[in-house]
Structures are given as structure tokens and as C-alpha cells.
Design a protein that fits this description.
Blueprint: H1 5-32, H2 38-50, H3 53-69, H4 73-100, H5 121-124, H6 132-147, H7 152-168, H8 174-193, H9 195-208, H10 212-226, H11 239-253, E1 260-261, E2 264-265, H12 272-284, H13 288-313, H14 316-327, H15 330-335, H16 342-361, H17 365-386, H18 389-404, H19 408-414, H20 417-438, H21 442-457, H22 469-477, H23 485-501, H24 508-524, H25 538-553, H26 559-581, H27 583-593, H28 598-601, H29 609-629, H30 633-663, H31 665-677, E3 684-687, H32 693-698, E4 702-705, H33 710-717, E5 724-728, H34 729-732, E6 742-747, E7 750-754
Parallel strand pairs: 3-4, 3-5
Antiparallel strand pairs: 1-2, 5-7, 6-7
């Protein structure tokens, strides 16, 4: 490879500037540590946040997908090349970081500089040189500049701003940024130079394994969406925190069979979710990322399963659309970021139903047996995740399908009913029997009767709703795809009738309809209602809408159906825009009417995030209509997907941390502070609060006292040992004067009190 003379001069000058930058590090550091304005800090924090590798990788994958989907060769090639350059530059930067072992600026005061090779460089803060942010952004700028030379200044300007933000925030030295820029420029030029060979390899792989590239892109997009910001906020009360704390206590006590919360048996849920969370805690540590890990992973699994199923039963285009629709649905995005059972349950129920359906249509006996056993095993895992509902819902769907499709006798034989029941029993009964013996039958009595039967027949914890409750949940939870549901349902109903008129046995349309109707009606009749209960029907909804979009793009749908769906989409976009614009005013209204609730007592400042989301929604809606009028449906669909991804990114990047700071951060700070002040085995007193996060972050048992139970509080405070009480500020102000409590620390609308003036400190 012959290097032009001009390039040699530029690279030589760059290397000399790198050497000079080491000498300028101290002077540059003094400049960046000088007083600065709040607006500049906010701007630099935003540039640094949105310039992370995670964000840039999401941009590359989205560019690649839109190019493949819209059949824009330049887009797909640029996206693929950008992704290659991002991966190589990031890996190269990490290798150099671990070889050099340079301390971050914050460690310089301890006398640390270059410590040489270290496997734990990132953990110890010895990963300063070169900057991975800068390397990735400049590599990306080179690739984008070669593809779109007119925007050259804009691309390099963005890379420079992101690089400057790392210096401004004190994350790197000047030489780190210069080294990262040179590394990124070099890798970007290599990617452009070897572009034909890289694209040839990718095309060869795709031609040999058709659909694999699409599946990989969808999986990568799902990982970026679902794992994004998992550790950004504390665990939310009540459900997230109680699942995490139960797992932590089980690991601490070594009791991995009986769930315990506050060191007492907890009978709400079966064991599998605790085992999964314990495995994440063991590998990733006891933190928010580990607690939410399995929900995000289960979400990725559901998306991939939906893709594989739709590809096998419909076609590749419908499979891609179905998976993307599911991955960008609001309820799925939310549930994958929560440490609760519903996403894991959705994974197992979806796997069970897909496998049952495949069993019915497999011709070879061995394949029928494998698919059937997989279906029963997935149902068993669902039973261990949330109880009888894990087998009840799949069985109801599949039995109704077999009866209504005229396949009852043949289907029952293919399901291997006897063998399946034996497998189900072998996988579930050992734990249920063991926990029943260990709790003297209390677990089965409380779990089955109170938390299943009575929760279905009566209202639990005030979670009730009208008959149309789940219609609203679907309308909101399936955004931004809600507008296309009526046409999709009409299409699949018409397909079912056409199949029946031809004298054939209905299959996929009937199966999807029953999947949706069974889950929807089952939970609609339940007296206790929660939005997450119907999550298992979202994969079926996604396949329906993906199938409809595939027909619409290929011209198989009537013009009226398409136009009506477009109008519905416009209406939904307008409503969502107005709702987001009104969100700050709605929060002010809630705070004025519910100021007695600690979470709403303070002022919620959501900043410009609702406005940004409203603008995103309005622009996506307007752009969709403009493209529709020009009959550019494929570009319109791409705009919806891009808008949904951007909406998700901004929500979890900017909105979620603000909400978490208002709701949970005060409790986390007080819990950790109380833990430092108390003796190792001393319990924390929680007065009038139902916040399991206090136990999780304090890592100790709690004495939970009702707000009106002053005698019990006096009893505990009368003991000589040091006591700490956490409660709300409003409740603390109403305590009788004869209760000896002294304020120690206040955070938000919560306060920590002590029975000694000093508050104690170990």
C-alpha cells in the first residue's frame, strides 16, 4: 500500500503534535479547571453523554437497518462501514489503554501517572490514554465524510465538540484527546481504504446465510435499546426493590429455596426470578444493572424469537418488521428496564406458544417431539416464574386453536400430552414440594389462594380498573404502532375467513387472534388489574402489524385501509404531542393536589425533555404525512422507526434519570447514610413508609412501624442502643413531642432521625 506524500506529512505533523500535547497537559488542565458557566457545563455534559460509543453504535445500526430496509445501498454501506470503524477504534483504544495504564486526571493528586500494563485499568481509573470517545467519533467522522463530503465540516465539528467536552469535564488530558483523534483518523481511513473488501465479505456472509445479517442487526438494536441506562437510576419502589432485596437476603443467608424479605418468608412469587437475579448478582455485583439484567436479556430473546417465527411462517420482510415493531413498543421498552417478573414471563410464554404452534405443523415425528418438549419446558419455566398462569394461558390458547381449526385429535397427539405433563411435573414439582415442606404448607396456601385466586376474584392493593382498562393499556403501551392495529386486525380476520371459504383449515391468523383474545379477556375479567399483566400478548400484536405493513408496502393492501391507518397515525401522533407538551403542567397539578405524598411534595423540574419529545413526535408525524402524500410509504415507515428509537433514547437518557432522582435518590442516600451510622447488625426503623429500597441500599433488616403506631415507636426508642428512623418530612412534623427524636439528615421529602443528638457514626 503506497501512502501519498501529503498523507505522510500530515501524519508526521500529527505525531509531533501528540508529543507536544504531553508537554501542554498541565497548562491545558489549568485552563479547563478555571471558573465556568452553568450553561457551558450543561452543553458539555450533553455533548459527552450523546457522544458515547453506545449512542454512536445505535446511530450506525439504525443507519444500516434503514439502508437495508429502504433498499438504499449507500445508507447500508455507510452504516456497515461506520459500525466496523466504531468497533475497531473502540477495541484498539481499550487495548492501548490497558497497555499504557495512564491515570485519569482525578487520580493525579495521588501521584499516579503511567503505571504500565494492567488488566484492571478501567476499574482502577488507569485508562486515560487514549480517549475512546475521541477515537470513535473521529473514526466515524472519516467514514461519514467520505460518504457525504458536503457535510465534512459538520462531521468534524461534532467530533471536535465531543472531544472538547471530555477535556472540559476533566475526564481526560489534552494528549489523551490528541492520541484518540489520531487513532480514530487512522482507523477511519483504513476502513475507507478497505471498503470494497469489507463489503464483499459482508455480502458473501449474507448470501450464504440469508436473513442472518437482518437478525444480527435486530439483535444489536434490541441490546442497545433494552440495556441502555439500566444502571442509571436507583431501583424503584415497590416491586423492583422488593425483588432485588429478596434475592440479596437469600444470597446473604445461603437459603436459595425459600424467598425471604426482611428476613421473613415471602410468598408472593415462585423461585425462578430470584435464581436468575442471584446469578446476575454473583457475576455483576449487587447493583441495579444486575437486578434488571434478566429483564433486558429476556426482551432481546422475545424479539429474536418473534423474528424467527415470523420468518418461518410469513416471510423475511414481515419478520424484520414484526421484530422492530416489538422492540420499539413503549410497554416492552419499559418492562425491559424494570427488575420484575413480567418480561421473563413474557419470554417463556412466547417461547411456549411458538413451540406449540411449530409442533402442530412439523411433519417429522422427531421434530414434533423436540418442539413439543421445548414448549412444555418453556411452560414449566413460566410456572416457576409466576405460578399457574404460566401453563394456563398457553394451554387455553392452544386448545382453543386446535378445537376451532378442526385439528383437535391430531393436535393432541402431536403435543405429546402425557410426556409433556410428566416433563412439566419433573421441572416444577420438586421446588414446589420442597418449599411447601419447608414452610409447613404456608407457601402454597398463601401463594395459590391469596396471590392467585383471590387476586383474580377481588381487588388487591387498590389495583382496579374499568372493563376497558386493557384497551387503554394497549393503546398506550403499543405506541407508536397503535394506529395500525385496527387495519391489522381487520386484515387477519379477513385472512382467516378466506382460508375457511377455500375449505382449508385456518392456521396462523386464527392462532394470533386467539393468542391476543385469550390473554386480553382473561385479564379483563380479573378484578385486580395492572398494565404489565398483558405483556405476553405484545409479540402477537407485533406479528399482526408487521404482517400488515409487509402487505401494505408490497401493494397487497387496499388503498382505503392504508389511508385510514395513516389518518389514525396522525391522530395518535397529535394526541401524543399534546400530552407531552402538557406534561410539565400536569406534574404541577399533581403536586398541588397530592403534596402529602412524599414523591410529589417537592418541585419536579423535567427541563426541556418533554418539549424535545413533543417536537420529535410532531416532526415524525408531519414527516410521515408528507412522505405519504408522495406515496413514499417505505420512507415513512423508516421515519416512524427512527423517531421511535430517538424517542426511546431521549426518554431513558434524559427523562428517566430525572424521575429516578426525584422518586428514589433521596431514599438511596438516606439508606446508605443510615447504614454507616448503625452497628453492623442493628436494624433500621422505617416509619410509615412502604419502600423496600431502604432495605436494599441499607443492606440490613428493618423494623417497619405503621404511621399511627406511636406506642410501638416509643417502645423501640426506649431501648438504650442507638436507633435511626427514616420517614417522610410530613409525618415527622406530626410526631408527638414526647418521642425523643433528633433530625440528622434530610433528602428531598424524606428525613433521617436519631434517638441521640449526635446521630451516631461508626
Amino acid at each position: 500500500m503506497r501512502i501519498p506524500k501529503g498523507h505522510k506529512i500530515c501524519w508526521g505533523a500529527g505525531f509531533l503534535f501528540l508529543l507536544l500535547s504531553f508537554w501542554l497537559d498541565d497548562r491545558a488542565g489549568i485552563f479547563f479547571r478555571s471558573p465556568r458557566g452553568d450553561w457551558a457545563t450543561t452543553l458539555m455534559e450533553g455533548a459527552s453523554r450523546y457522544g458515547r460509543g453506545w449512542t454512536l453504535a445505535l446511530l450506525c445500526i439504525l443507519f444500516l437497518f434503514l439502508g437495508l430496509f429502504l433498499k438504499r445501498k449507500k445508507w447500508s454501506e455507510t452504516g456497515l462501514l461506520s459500525l466496523y470503524s466504531m468497533i475497531v477504534s473502540s477495541l484498539s483504544a481499550q487495548i492501548v489503554k490497558h497497555l499504557v495504564g495512564r491515570a485519569r486526571p482525578r487520580l493525579m493528586e495521588h501521584g499516579l501517572t503511567f503505571l504500565g500494563p494492567s488488566f484492571l485499568a478501567g476499574v482502577r481509573g488507569l485508562d486515560s490514554f487514549p480517549s475512546g470517545y475521541v477515537a470513535s467519533t473521529f473514526a466515524l467522522a472519516v467514514v461519514l465524510t467520505r460518504a457525504y463530503p458536503r457535510a465534512k465540516v459538520a462531521f468534524y465539528m461534532m467530533a471536535s465538540i465531543i472531544s472538547f467536552s471530555r477535556l472540559y469535564l476533566g475526564a481526560h488530558f489534552l494528549s489523551d484527546a490528541v492520541g484518540g483523534a489520531l487513532l480514530g483518523l487512522w482507523i477511519g481511513h483504513l476502513a475507507v481504504l478497505y471498503k470494497p473488501r469489507l463489503l464483499e465479505i459482508s455480502e458473501r456472509i449474507e448470501s450464504r446465510t440469508k436473513g442472518v445479517l437482518a437478525a444480527v442487526v435486530i439483535l444489536a438494536l434490541s441490546v442497545l435499546l433494552f440495556f441502555h441506562q439500566l444502571k442509571a437510576v436507583p431501583l424503584f419502589d415497590v416491586d423492583e426493590a422488593v425483588f432485588a432485596e429478596t434475592t440479596r437476603e437469600m444470597m446473604e443467608t445461603g437459603n436459595l429455596l425459600v424467598p425471604i424479605y426482611n428476613y421473613l418468608p415471602r410468598y408472593d412469587k415462585p423461585i425462578l426470578i430470584y435464581w436468575l437475579t442471584a446469578s446476575a448478582f454473583a457475576v455483576l455485583g449487587v447493583n441495579e444493572l444486575a437486578a434488571r439484567f434478566w429483564s433486558a436479556l429476556a426482551g432481546c430473546g422475545v424479539v429474536v424469537m418473534t423474528f424467527v417465527f415470523a420468518r418461518a411462517r410469513i416471510n423475511l420482510a414481515a419478520a424484520v418488521l414484526s421484530a422492530l415493531i416489538l422492540a420499539t413498543s413503549l410497554e416492552i421498552l419499559v418492562l425491559t428496564h424494570l427488575a420484575i417478573t413480567d418480561m421473563v414471563l413474557t419470554f417463556f410464554i412466547t417461547a411456549s406458544l411458538f413451540a406449540f404452534f411449530i409442533t402442530i405443523y412439523r411433519k417429522e415425528s422427531s421434530q414434533q417431539t423436540i418442539a413439543s418438549l421445548a414448549a412444555w419446558a418453556a411452560a414449566a419455566a413460566a410456572v416457576l416464574t409466576k405460578g399457574p398462569i404460566g401453563i394456563l394461558l398457553p394451554i387455553l390458547v392452544i386448545l382453543l386453536f386446535l378445537c376451532l381449526s378442526g385439528r383437535a385429535r391430531e393436535g393432541m397427539r402431536r403435543l405429546r400430552l402425557g410426556l409433556g405433563i410428566v416433563l412439566l411435573g419433573c421441572l416444577t414439582l420438586p421446588w414446589y414440594l420442597a418449599v411447601s415442606l419447608m414452610t409447613e404448607g404456608n407457601f402454597l396456601r398463601v401463594f395459590v389462594v391469596e396471590h392467585n385466586v383471590m387476586r383474580y376474584l377481588s381487588v388487591n392493593s387498590g389495583h382496579e380498573g374499568p372493563w376497558y382498562y386493557y384497551l387503554l393499556v394497549i393503546a398506550i403501551g403499543f405506541l407508536p404502532w397503535t394506529a395500525f392495529l385496527p387495519a391489522s386486525l381487520h386484515h387477519v380476520w379477513k385472512q382467516k375467513n378466506e382460508v375457511r371459504q377455500r375449505g382449508e383449515k385456518p392456521s396462523l391468523p386464527l392462532f394470533l387472534l386467539l393468542w391476543i383474545l385469550v390473554i386480553f379477556l382473561f385479564f379483563s375479567f380479573s378484578r385486580t388489574k395492572l398494565p404489565n399483566y398483558i405483556a405476553p400478548l405484545f409479540p402477537a400484536l407485533s406479528v399482526l402489524v408487521g404482517w400488515w405493513w409487509d402487505r401494505a408496502l408490497s401493494g397487497q393492501e387496499g388503498e382505503r385501509s392504508v389511508r385510514v391507518s395513516a389518518l389514525c397515525g396522525g391522530a395518535v401522533g397529535l394526541i401524543l404531542t399534546l400530552a407531552l407538551a402538557a406534561l410539565p403542567f400536569a406534574m404541577s397539578h399533581l403536586q398541588s393536589h397530592f403534596s402529602s405524598i412524599p414523591s410529589f411534595a417537592g418541585h419536579w423540574d423535567l427541563g426541556t425533555v418533554p418539549f424535545l419529545l413533543a417536537v420529535t413526535t410532531s416532526l415524525s408525524t408531519a414527516g410521515f404525512f408528507v412522505l405519504l402524500r408522495r406515496d413514499r410509504w417505505m420512507e415513512g415507515l423508516g421515519l416512524i422507526i427512527a423517531g421511535a428509537v430517538f424517542f426511546s433514547f431521549v426518554s431513558f437518557e434524559a427523562l428517566l434519570p430525572r424521575v429516578g432522582n426525584y422518586l428514589q435518590e433521596p431514599l438511596r442516600i438516606l439508606a446508605r447514610s443510615a447504614s454507616e451510622r448503625l452497628e453492623p447488625q442493628a436494624p433500621l426503623i422505617v416509619l410509615g413508609l412502604n419502600n423496600p429500597s431502604l432495605l436494599f441500599y441499607a443492606k440490613r433488616p428493618a423494623i417497619i412501624i405503621d404511621a399511627a403506631d406511636s406506642p410501638k415507636l416509643r417502645e423501640y426508642l426506649s431501648q438504650r442502643q442507638h436507633q435511626i428512623v427514616v420517614t417522610s418530612t410530613s409525618l415527622a412534623s406530626t410526631l408527638p413531642n414526647d418521642i425523643p427524636l433528633y433530625p440528622i439528615e434530610r433528602r428531598g421529602n424524606y428525613i433521617m432521625l436519631s434517638n441521640t443528638p449526635q446521630g451516631g457514626s461508626r
